[in-house]
Structures are given as C-alpha cells and as structure tokens.
Specification:
alpha/beta; 5 helices; globular; seven-stranded mixed β-sheet
Length: 212
C-alpha cells in the first residue's frame, strides 16, 4: 500500500455530528496506552500526524484521516484511562458506540491489544461491542518488540483465549518500532477496500439484470 497523501480531515467531539462520508472507513479502537497513535502514524508513513503522548488518554475525539482520497482511517477515543472520571469514560464509550452503530461507510474495525498482557475488562467489553455492532474485528497485538520472539505464540494464545475470539479471527502481531506486521495490516485493508468495490459492482450488475 503506497501512501500518497494523508491528512486529518474531520475531528468529532462528544456533541459533534458524525460526518456523512462517501469513502470506505476502517476504524482503530484500543485502550489509551496501547500504541494506537503510533500504529496509525506507521500506517500513514508519517511521524506525528496522529498525536502521540507519554500521557495516556490523549485521543478524546473521533479523528478521520483521509488516505489517498480513497479511504478513511478513523481513530476512536482511547478507553480505560484510570485518571478520567467515570462520567467522562461513559461519554467516550457512548461516542464509540454511536460511531459503530451509525457509520454507513465503516467496513472494518481493528481492535488493538497489548501482546504482553492478558486482555482486561475494557478490552473484552470493546470486543463484545464491536461484535454486537455486526463487525468481525481484526485483532492487532501491539508492542511485539517488547517480548522475546520465543514468547510470541504463547502470548497470542493468551489473547485469543482472554478475548474468547470467534474461530478464525485474524490476529496480527505489530511493532511500532520495527514496523513488523505493517504489511499484513496493509494487505487486510486493501482486501477490505477491494471487497467494497466488488460488492458495488455486483449491486450494479444485479440492478441491471432486474431492469432487463
């Protein structure tokens, strides 16, 4: 996937109306310290377009990045930040739920989890929200460079069992430092966009056949 252009196009807060887009969207969800901004910057081949911070909880909005004027990368608010009030967490949760349930162009959700640790209650709830909204998320296991290579399979099994993933769910180990896993994510995004184009062509053909 060659990134020719990437720009932050729309930022939506808690009270904002979500944009009505005509391009397919892929969304990225994950807890506040899982490395979501680092992943998105790596995918966009930019150093700091998505803001990263040593302080978790930085992403408090839904951010739409227009990629090549062909697709949107949608950065959802990080969840589970301990220093945020309960009412604020609930507002962010409702914002994420609203997006998952109302976006007409959302084609794929990527759920980021830290490969080093067992999924916590927030990770499990997020996975259940995504599935309940009708999507089969791809799991991106971040911080791959923080464990030994020999531990990878053991930790992936831990994530699969901890989240109670549906059989066949794709897990992609990823490192923001080495960029390992980026090509696999690109391939999945491209397949998602190609499926969308294929579905559109099929619908057009079906309409033509009906008219005839």
């Amino acid at each position: 996937m060659i990134i020719k252009s990437a720009e932050l196009e729309t930022v939506c807060g808690i009270t904002s109306k979500l944009p009505v887009n005509t391009l397919p969207e892929v969304a990225f969800a994950g807890k506040s310290n899982v490395g979501k901004s680092s992943l998105i910057n790596a995918l966009m081949n930019r150093k700091s377009l998505a803001r990263t911070s040593q302080q978790p909880g930085k992403t408090q909005t839904i951010n739409y990045y227009n990629i090549n004027k062909e697709i949107y990368f949608v950065d959802l608010p990080g969840y589970g930040y301990a220093k945020v009030s309960k009412s604020e967490k609930e507002k962010w949760g409702k914002m994420i739920e609203r997006y998952l349930n109302t976006s007409m162009m959302l084609k794929k959700v990527y759920l980021l989890v830290d490969i080093r640790h067992e999924p916590n209650a927030n990770d499990k709830q997020m996975y259940e929200w995504i599935v309940a909204s009708g999507y089969e998320p791809v799991i991106i296991a971040t911080k791959l460079d923080k464990i030994n290579r020999s531990q990878k399979d053991k930790h992936l099994k831990m994530l699969r069992e901890g989240l109670r993933l549906k059989k066949g769910t794709l897990i992609i180990p990823f490192s923001a430092q080495t960029k390992q896993g980026r090509e696999e994510i690109y391939e999945d995004i491209i397949a998602t966009v190609n499926d969308e184009v294929s579905d559109d062509n099929t619908e057009t053909t079906d309409m033509t056949d009906t008219t005839d």
